[in-house]
Design goal:
The structure holds 2 protein chains of 2 kinds. Chain A is mainly alpha-helical. Chain A has one domain: ABC transporter involved in vitamin B12 uptake, BtuC (Orthogonal Bundle), CATH 1.10.3470. Chain A has a two-stranded antiparallel sheet. The longest helix of chain A is centred in the middle third of the chain and has 26 residues. The two termini of chain A are 22 Å apart. Chain B folds into 2 domains: 163 residues, Rossmann fold, CATH 3.40.50.300; 74 residues, no CATH class. Chain B is 36% helix and 24% strand. Chain B has a 6-stranded mixed beta sheet, sandwiched between helices. Chain B is globular. Chain B starts with a strand and ends with a helix. The model of chain B has no long low-confidence stretch (mean pLDDT 88). The chains are: A mainly alpha, B alpha/beta. Chains A and B meet through helix 8, helix 9, helix 10 and helix 11 of A and helix 2 and helix 3 of B.
Chain lengths: 403, 250
């Protein structure tokens, strides 16, 4: 059986991803509203949109870094360019997100073609430095000479005087919101059941559907001869050249595709909240997507998505645990012990979430070079082995060896 | 006329004359070995053939076309495959995937954006790859991670990758260097089998006399950057100039 050109195993995989994405509003809201753990719920639209959008960003980055091994330190530039393009579309054309996203993808693709063409003349650390330099250059240009396009430090925003030639009716006394053929992005419905409030927002589902399409495309690339060539680049460029393959167009194609993914993510960010600022292009933002990919598992399909979710969860949820919250948790302890414990934990939570994330990252890199995906595989392997042992205890033979 | 014609090739590195007026003609469907002591210019010569070095003077023609300054992937597309001193394979991929890549390169040329096809559905390529692995006795290792192979198996795999493209000319750079005796003999057997079963021209740069005399039909002896003699193995064996070059007394 094949479905959309996928074999049975991949079809199952895709369906699981679709199911997880569709049920995210439930899955991320496991704790009752009035319980002490409610602050760990992540099922609110803004954060769920970020999961999907940064998931797309990381999936795209993984096509370059995970497959070809070229480590770009400037991918946030494409995200930023995508955001600016989308906001300009909202200002000039229409509040519909479709043209905005299309322009974001095209502009970032062209930009990636230019930067990739130059940067891919070098490999290894020199390539990384070139991409970093281009991204920082874009960041600084956005603050200086390009201010007429980027609106400098204020960031590019909608104004009441924007022309929006395709939907003049949107010009009223208040700023319109982004929409998909009339369906407004910030529209949402809530459902309260068992003390839990589930929020279903249009914005999230638009991001989710696009993320699934992005994931599907990446899955097809992984399974294609093109994907095989990209993996060949990573392992041996010399052999590849002496096999009759020109490595540069392959690497450039991967670079442009991943740049377009970044642009798509940028366009979606602007579609959910129509403003764009240069800080999206800063090198820390480029570093973040590298972290996401490595943390989740570079070169795996699901890894980057997991990494993106993990980091965004930390950034938004873990960072909210301040001293008051900690006092609430440990109130049952004797005062002296409570204070000592809180002093101990304090640097790792709240504003110190970076420290915890950094340590986790180190642990993953040292003990799990394959990222969170490897962790999952090891746990699955453990269960499989135990099952096999149980079976051989019964006297029957263990049949399937772990591949 | 030979399939590969090298005329008047010289190459200097600063004050060192690595190659001095080299003329070698490799005839079609022969195994031609180029031997010589260390520093005779064998590797420089090979690098001039594959576009890695450009000679200062002279010409290198393959089937009437110049190879000078041509990129490695284009040289391969013209029908020349190269086996390296240290086997160059795709170590992160499986044995099977290693053989698929040259087959795609042969069918689709140096670049094709086949992002929406699926490797699994390429029945013709898969069949060819399987046959190739059967030919070199590696089909049972098809799912193995190629980094985990023994040196001899890596060489065997590299050879399979080159042969899968049915090259007109196969260049081998010390194919048995660093191998244990058993692996060396296996490699010699494999090369003999290739020589006898396929219409292929081979140019071997080699140090090991045992390998050369078991395989070659023509031998060129190089010393100090120039070919000394070219003849059949039997005539080379007793040649006084060869004795001299190998036993000292430059």
């Amino acid at each position: 059986m094949t479905f959309l050109g996928l074999n049975e195993r991949d079809t199952r995989f895709l369906l699981i991803v679709v199911a997880l994405t569709m049920f995210t509003p439930f899955l991320l809201q496991p704790f009752a509203e009035n319980s002490g753990l409610a602050q760990f719920n992540a099922g609110y639209p803004d954060l769920m949109q970020r999961f999907a959008i940064y998931g797309i960003f990381a999936i795209g980055f993984n096509i370059l870094f995970g497959l070809t091994g070229y480590l770009s330190f400037g991918h946030a530039a494409f995200l930023g360019v995508g955001s600016y393009s989308a906001v300009w579309m909202f200002k000039l054309l229409s509040m519909n997100i479709i043209p905005a996203i299309i322009l974001a993808v095209i502009v970032s693709g062209l930009f990636a073609l230019l930067i990739g063409f130059i940067s891919l003349r070098r490999t290894g650390i020199y390539f990384s430095i070139l991409t970093l330099a281009f991204a920082q250059m874009s960041f600084n240009l956005a603050y200086s000479v390009l201010t007429p396009i980027t609106n400098g430090e204020t960031g590019l925003q909608l104004t009441l005087s924007d022309p929006r030639i395709l939907d003049p009716e949107s010009i009223t006394n208040s700023l319109p919101s982004t929409s998909l053929f009339g369906l407004e992005m910030n529209d949402s419905a809530q459902w309260e059941v068992f003390g839990r409030v589930f929020t279903f927002s249009v914005g999230y589902y638009v991001c989710a559907v696009i993320a699934i399409i992005a994931f599907y495309i990446s899955l097809r690339i992984f399974r294609s001869p093109f994907g095989l060539m990209l993996r060949a680049i990573k392992t041996n460029k010399t052999r590849m050249a002496y096999t009759g393959l020109n490595t540069r167009p392959y690497a450039l194609a991967a670079f442009v595709i991943s740049g377009m993914y970044a642009g798509l993510a940028g366009g979606l960010l602007a579609s959910m909240d129509p403003l764009a600022g240069a800080e999206r292009m800063q090198w820390t933002a480029s570093g973040e997507v590298v972290l996401m990919t490595i943390l989740g598992g570079a070169g795996t399909l699901m890894g980057p998505v997991l990494g993106a979710g993990f980091i965004k969860y930390f950034e938004n949820i873990f960072s909210k645990i301040n001293d008051n919250v900690l006092h609430g948790w440990f109130a049952f302890m004797p005062d002296g012990l409570e204070d000592a414990l809180i002093t101990l934990i304090h640097p790792f939570v709240g504003k110190g979430w970076h420290l915890t994330l950094g340590m986790l990252f180190m642990l993953v890199v040292i003990f799990l070079p394959g990222g969170l995906v490897e962790l999952g595989q090891r746990i699955a392997g453990l269960f499989r082995r135990r099952k096999a042992e149980d079976r051989s205890d019964d006297g029957s033979k263990a049949t399937t060896p772990a591949e | 006329m030979g399939i590969l014609e090298v005329k008047g090739v010289s190459k200097r590195f600063g004050g060192l004359k690595a190659l001095d007026d080299v003329n070698i003609t490799v005839k079609e469907n022969t195994v031609h070995a180029i031997i010589g002591p260390n520093g005779a210019g064998k590797s420089t010569f090979l690098n001039c053939l594959v576009g890695k070095l450009i000679p200062d003077t002279g010409s290198v023609m393959f089937e009437g076309q110049s190879l000078l300054g041509v990129a490695p992937h284009k040289i391969n597309q013209m029908g020349i495959s190269r086996v390296f001193q240290t086997p160059e394979i795709f170590a992160d991929l499986t044995v099977f995937e290693n053989v698929l890549i040259p087959l795609f390169a042969k069918r689709d040329g140096s670049y094709r954006m086949h992002a929406f096809e699926t490797v699994e559905n390429e029945a013709d390529i898969i069949a060819l790859a399987e046959q190739m692995l059967i030919d070199v006795n590696m089909i049972d290792k098809r799912h193995a991670h190629s980094a985990s192979l023994s040196r001899g198996d890596k060489r065997r795999l590299e050879m399979a990758m080159c042969l899968s493209q049915s090259p007109k000319l196969l260049l081998l750079d010390e194919p048995t260097a660093g191998m244990a005796r058993a692996d060396t003999n296996n490699t010699i057997d494999l090369l003999k089998e290739i020589r006898d079963k396929r219409d292929i021209t081979m140019a071997i740069i080699e140090h090991d006399m045992h390998v050369v005399f078991s395989l070659a039909e023509r031998i060129t002896v190089m010393a100090q950057g120039t070919p000394l003699v070219e003849d059949t193995p039997d005539n080379i064996k007793g040649h006084p100039k060869v004795q001299e070059a190998y036993l000292g007394g430059h």
